[in-house]
Amino acid sequence: MQEELPWRDSMRPVRLGPFDARLLLFVLPATFFPSWWTVGAVVLAWLAFRAVEARGYRPPAALRAVRRALAGERRALHRRRMRSALDYGRS
Predict the structure, then answer these.
(1) What region does 50 belong to: left with phi over 0, alpha with psi -120 to 50, or beta?
(2) CA 52, CA 67: separation in Å to the nearest integer?
(3) Cα(19)–Cα(22) distance, rounded to whole angstroms?
(4) Tens of pLDDT along 32-70?
């Protein structure tokens, strides 16, 4: 008795063919207001999404990695005391 469990696919990223669905945020304005800068924004967004996926990240995870890199190794504990960042074995 094989039962389909569609809820297991609920965490998969939404894709429209080979493209991430978040690219639509850039494609829709370019279709309604076509100009060179909107087409350029679509191409830059597409290249950024491809570069992120080539490194094995999804866009939310890539934003977390950038935020982690910008935050640095030292974290504020109190106003005068600092602590180093905790590492749980993930990078």
Answers:
(1) alpha
(2) 15
(3) 8
(4) 999 999 999 999 999 999 999 999 888 888 988 888 888
Query: Under a CB-based contact definition with an 8 Å cutoff, are residues 19 and 38 in contact?
Result: no
Euclidean distance between CA atoms 47 and 4, whole angstroms = 36
- Annotate 16-62 with three-state secondary structure: ECCEEHHHHHHHHHHHHCCCHHHHHHHHHHHHHHHHHHHCCCCHHHH
Distance CA 76, CA 68 (A): 14
**In sequence order, which residues have a C-beta less than 8 Å from that of residue 29 and are 6 or more positions away?**
38, 41
pTM of the model: 0.65
User: What residues contact 62, with CB distance under 8 A and at least 6 apart?
Assistant: 52, 55
